[in-house]
Every structure is written in structure tokens, then in C-alpha cells.
Amino acid sequence: xxxxxxxxxxxxxxxxxxxxxxxxxxxxxxxxxxxxxxxxxxxxxxxxxxxxxxxxxxxxxxxxxxxxxxxxxxxxxxxxxxxxxxxxxxxxxxxxxxxxxxxxxxxxxxxxxxxxxxxxxxxxxxxxxxxxxxxxxxxxxxxxxxxxxxxxxxxxxxxxxxxxxxxxxxxxxxxxxxxxxxxxxxxxxxxxxxxxxxxxxxxxxxxxxxxxxxxxxxxxxxxxxxxxxxxxxxxxxxxxxxxxxxxxxxxxxxxxxxxxxxxxxxxxxxxxxxxxxxxxxxxxxx
Amino acid sequence: xxxxxxxxxxxxxxxxxxxxxxxxxxxxxxxxxxxxxxxxxxxxxxxxxxxxxxxxxxxxxxxxxxxxxxxxxxxxxxxxxxxxxxxxxxxxxxxxxxxxxxxxxxxxxxxxxxxxxxxxxxxxxxxxxxxxxxxxxxxxxxxxxxxxxxxxxxxxxxxxxxxxxxxxxxxxxxxxxxxxxxxxxxxxxxxxxxxxxxxxxxxxxxxxxxxxxxxxxxxxxxxxxxxxxxxxxxxxxxxxxxxxxxxxxxxxxxxxxxxxxxxxxxxxxx
Lengths: 286, 270
What we know:
The structure holds 2 protein chains of 2 kinds. By secondary structure, chain A is an alpha/beta fold. Helix content of chain A is 42%, strand content 22%. Chain A folds into 2 domains: 3-245, 3-Layer(aba) Sandwich (Rossmann fold), CATH 3.40.50.300; 246-286, no CATH class. Chain A starts with a strand and ends with a helix. Helices cover 39% and strands 22% of the residues of chain B. Chain B has a 6-stranded mixed beta sheet with strand order 6-7-8-3-9-10, with helices on both faces. Chain B has a 4-stranded antiparallel beta sheet with strand order 2-1-4-5, with helices on one face. Chain B: One of its GO terms (molecular function) is ATP binding.
């Protein structure tokens, strides 16, 4: 599979800052992969998103060292508008993504396509499809500013998905959502992956990362400290040193080991816990 | 000492949308409760009524002996502090200290008390190191702690936190837990809206579940997450610990990690 994103020895410093907030980062992402970016707040997750979508340095300026290559082309050689069609970015705070120039959810979702000059019939069809997909058809006539946090978060995702970009960079899409709304969003993201999209997701809900993502990038104080398949990263003792949330079942498993209950393997999904334990019980019964 | 008594309260927004229906709830001074339920269930409306930001269309809310209809929001908020869901709806100063200082200063505390409360709240919420920053340069999660500090500095008897767990990392969650502990020692009433079921089951006993503008149930945590009817009606997901207990066929009633660990090690020994 071909690498759609390649980052080589990338460091970045915001214009007025003395310190680099991303330090010598190297990784690559295959087309169609679902990668989660994890790390505590202030670790550089959102800045990394901004580097991949070209806002660093196109918009924020500052000092960028190393290489960021998207789809075979250096990020500095793109126009910001071209990147906008290739990479869809869903904001961390849905309150700041809403355009403010549209008075209904339908028009808000249509806004991006309008700006690309897509024919009206096509826009209407695409918006209808996406409203259904994200389950916000009932909100179509509402003013985006009258929506709850959770509703806005869905509108924000819809407004990006409708543009059909190859790469989706999604920054904490479920922070304001209830558990069922959160799973709905992850189902939409999974659907995007099935359609061949490359997905980068910043998220603190590790249970869902364990369930859905292929790979993890772990950021700590601006450095990429771990990367690899989800299971490998969560079961690596090194992960514990960064004081980042675990999937709940992994935390339970590690605590069980601590109190002397041995496990066959480290589970990362709830369903795996009986298997990790059960063999042990069976052996004890022998 | 401020008890809250909400009696048969309904609320409709000016456009006629009914947001809360026949809501009854009594909260004694010093209690810690969590309000949970789906987006749109009416949780934020309910708590905005408690601090007088909204006034009931029907029914009454008593904050201590004050009926919220007869007092201004400013008067009620001396007793009941509300931390907004979205920090950007709340922050309006360009440095953190003046943001936090604003509340106690306006409550008429003397200079020394204002200093003391401001320092205490900034310290407790871990925002002291960011003091020279404009709050809008800080990450969302830190801005949330700025707004919590601003409300805590007013030293009101009742504190309402609207989704404090949203977007928090492990460090932020640990800080919230510490804040809850300190507020308990100070005998403050704390009402929290949250979608984080693990946070609820680990740190709260009394849970109010809302769905479709109403209270579905007001009970202890173990009565809620093992009650199929309630879970279905309110479309709640049980916490991971409860799911694991079920998968292992352990007895009902396990809601915390400590209980789960104990039950598993018990079973392994058998």
C-alpha cells in the first residue's frame, strides 16, 4: 500500500514561541488506514493535525523544519485551497467550526460544496445523503447556533464528510456527545474507512480507539514517543510511563496483574477479558 | 447551608419548545449528585433553572428560602454557581487572574478575601502557571478549568459543573476528582452533568437520569446500571466495569473498578 502521508524529521515552532511544540517527528500513514493520535492535553496533537492539513505553516506561519509530504507532494508546495479539497478537518470545538453565515443546518452542510462551485442539484443530493448518514435529518431547518453541543458536533462532521476528501483529520469529534451518540459517530468514521478514506483521529476515549483504529501515534511533550498497531502500543509497558488513559479493560487487566492475578494476554477490548482470564481459571481447576 | 427544592417545574423556550416537564428534585446541602442522559434530554436546561439563568414557566424553584422567580440571576448566583458547558460562553477577560477575580470582587468581598479566594481557586484548578496567557490561547480543556476556577472563587454553597469531563485527558480527570474531594471537605453541594459513565460510577452515589425532558429515575448508582428498563428508556450505556462484570458472569451490583478487581480475585482463588 502506498503512503499517503509522510512526515520526516518534522519540528515546528509557533511564531512567538521560544520552544518547539513538535520535535523531530517521523512517521508515515498508508492510504486507507485509521490512525489514532493520543496523548495528554498540550502534547501537540492539534498542532500535528494542523501540520498535516497545511495550516502549519501556511496559516499560522512560524518555523517548520523537516518534511511533510501529502500524496507525494511537499506540503509547502500546495496552495491552502488545494489541501482543503484533499484533507477534511473537523474542529475540536464544534462551536468554532460553524461558519456563522448560514441560517440552517442544511445550508451549513452545503456551504463547502457551494464554495467549490458544485452544481446545485448535485449539492442537494449530497447534502441529503450526508444528513441521513450522520443522523441529523431532523435538524435540517434549525439554526446551527441553536443546537446543543452534541448536535453541533454532528453537523460539523457532516459539513466535512459532504466534501468527500481523501483524508479526514478529526479532532476529538465526540467530546460533547453521549455514549450512544459517540458510537454513532464512530460508526460513521468506520464507514468512511470502508469507503477507502484515510482517517486520522484525535481522541481520549481509548475503549473506542481499541475497537476501531488500526494504529496509534503517541505524543508526549511534542515528541512522537510510540507508534504501531493499537494492540502492540497498549500492551507495551512503555505506554504506562506517559500517564495517558488506557482502555478501561486494559487498566483493569494491569491492576489484576498487580494484585497477583495472572493473565494469558493483555486484553484491549471488553470481550477479551473472559478469554484472558478464563484459561487461567480452567488451569486452576485442573 | 443551601437546600435546593425544585417543585413541578416546566420550562418552555421563548419559541415554544418545551425543554423540561414536571421536574421535581430535592438536593440537600453538601450532597454530590450526577445528572446523566442523552444529548437533548434537558440536563442543561434543568441546571440553568437552578441558578436562575432561566426562570420556570410553571412550578417553583427554591434555593434555600429564595424563590428564583423573585430574585435576579445575580442574587441567585451568590448561592448557586454555574460553570457553562462551553467555556467560550463564559470567559470574557484577557488574562486568567482577572477572569477568576471578577466573581468574588463583584460579590463584595473585601480585598484580602478576594485575593485569598482567587489564589485558592486558581491553585486548585491548576491554572496558576498559565496566568499571563490569554485564556483563548489555551487548549479547550485548560479553558474549562479557568471557568471552574472563576465559579469556585465565588465561594457559593452550590456548584454546578456542566460536562467538566468533556475533552479531558487523564491528568484533567485526576484534577477534577481532586476538586470534588476538596469541595466535599468544604461541604459544598456539587451537581455535575456528564457523559462519562466511569466518572459517574467511580465518584458519585446519587444519580439523576433524564430522558425526554423528564427525570426517569433518581437513585443509587448500582440501582441504575443493572436496571434494564431504565437503561433502555434513557438510552444509557453502562460503564465498562459493568460490561466486564456481565461478561464474566459476576453478581450484579458491581459499578467500580475496585469492586470488579475484588470479585475477580475472589473467583480466581476458588
